[in-house]
Amino acid sequence: MLPADIEPVIRDPKATPPGHRIDLHHSMCFGCGSEAPVGLRIEVIAGEGLTVTAAMKVEDWMQGGPGVIHGGVLSAAFDEVMGTSPLLLRKPVVTGHLEIDYAKPIPLGSTVHFTGEILGGVRRKVYTRCVAHLGDPANPVAAAHALFIAIDLEKHFSGYRERAVHSQHQNGA
Ligand SMILES: CCCCCCCCCCCCCC(=O)SCCNC(=O)CCNC(=O)[C@H](O)C(C)(C)COP(=O)(O)OP(=O)(O)OC[C@H]1O[C@@H](n2cnc3c(N)ncnc32)[C@H](O)[C@@H]1OP(=O)(O)O
C-alpha cells in the first residue's frame, strides 16, 4: 500500500508531548468524544516520535458474534487511533482509506491495546499503521493500515456544520 514516493515526516515541536492525551477534536465524536451518547471514548496518548497508543475496554454493547467484538467497532477504533496520530504533525485529517487484518477473535470484557505509527507522507497524504493486542505485544489480534488526507477544517465541514450535534459543553471541532 505504501507508495514509492513516500517521504519521511517530522513531528511538530508543538505537538502534544509523549505520555499526554492528544486533545479531543470534538466532545460529541463517536470515537473520542467524552459527551457522545454512544461512543468508544478512546483516549489517544502521544508516544515518542511519530507513535501513539490507546486502550479500549470491549463492552457488551460492542458485541458482534456471540461473546466477541463486532468487526466494525474494531475498525472504528483503529480509525480513531490512527486518525488522531497526524495531530503529531499538527495536521487535521480525514480518512481516505482503511484496511484491517483481523487475526483473532477479541472477547467481550478484554482490553484492546493499540500502538499506532505514522509511516510517512506525500503532499496531503499521511500513511499510518497500527497493531492491536490484548496485553502481550508479541501476540497481536489485529493490524491496520490507513491513509489520511490533510484538510482545511473550515472548508471541509462548511456545508455540514448546521447539522452538527452539540452538547452543553461543546468545545468545537
Ligand atoms: C474529523 C475532524 C477533523 C479533526 C481532527 C482530528 C482528529 C481526528 C480523529 C478522527 C478519526 C476519524 C476520522 C474519520 O473517520 S473521517 C470520516 C471518514 N472520511 C471521510 O468522510 C472522507 C471523505 N472523503 C473526502 O472528503 C475527500 O475524498 C478527501 C478530503 C479525502 C479528498 O478530497 P480532496 O478533493 O480534498 O483531495 P483529492 O481528491 O485531490 O485527494 C488528495 C490526495 O489524496 C488521494 N486520495 C484521496 N482519497 C483516496 C483514497 N481513498 N485512496 C487513495 N488515495 C486517495 C488523492 O489521490 C490525492 O493524491 P495525490 O494526487 O496528492 O497523489
TrEMBL record:
<keyword id="KW-0053">Apoptosis</keyword>
<keyword id="KW-0966">Cell projection</keyword>
<comment type="similarity">
    <text>Belongs to the THEM4/THEM5 thioesterase family.</text>
</comment>
<dbReference type="InterPro" id="IPR006683">
    <property type="entry name" value="Thioestr_dom"/>
</dbReference>
<keyword id="KW-0809">Transit peptide</keyword>
<dbReference type="Pfam" id="PF03061">
    <property type="entry name" value="4HBT"/>
</dbReference>
<dbReference type="GO" id="GO:0016020">
    <property type="term" value="C:membrane"/>
</dbReference>
<keyword id="KW-0276">Fatty acid metabolism</keyword>
<keyword id="KW-1003">Cell membrane</keyword>
<dbReference type="GO" id="GO:0005737">
    <property type="term" value="C:cytoplasm"/>
</dbReference>
<dbReference type="GO" id="GO:0016787">
    <property type="term" value="F:hydrolase activity"/>
</dbReference>
<keyword id="KW-0963">Cytoplasm</keyword>
<feature type="domain" description="Thioesterase">
    <location>
        <begin position="67"/>
        <end position="136"/>
    </location>
</feature>
<keyword id="KW-0443">Lipid metabolism</keyword>
<keyword id="KW-0378">Hydrolase</keyword>
<keyword id="KW-0472">Membrane</keyword>
<protein>
    <recommendedName>
        <fullName>Acyl-coenzyme A thioesterase THEM4</fullName>
        <ecNumber>3.1.2.2</ecNumber>
    </recommendedName>
</protein>
<dbReference type="GO" id="GO:0006631">
    <property type="term" value="P:fatty acid metabolic process"/>
</dbReference>
<dbReference type="InterPro" id="IPR029069">
    <property type="entry name" value="HotDog_dom_sf"/>
</dbReference>
<dbReference type="InterPro" id="IPR052365">
    <property type="entry name" value="THEM4/THEM5_acyl-CoA_thioest"/>
</dbReference>
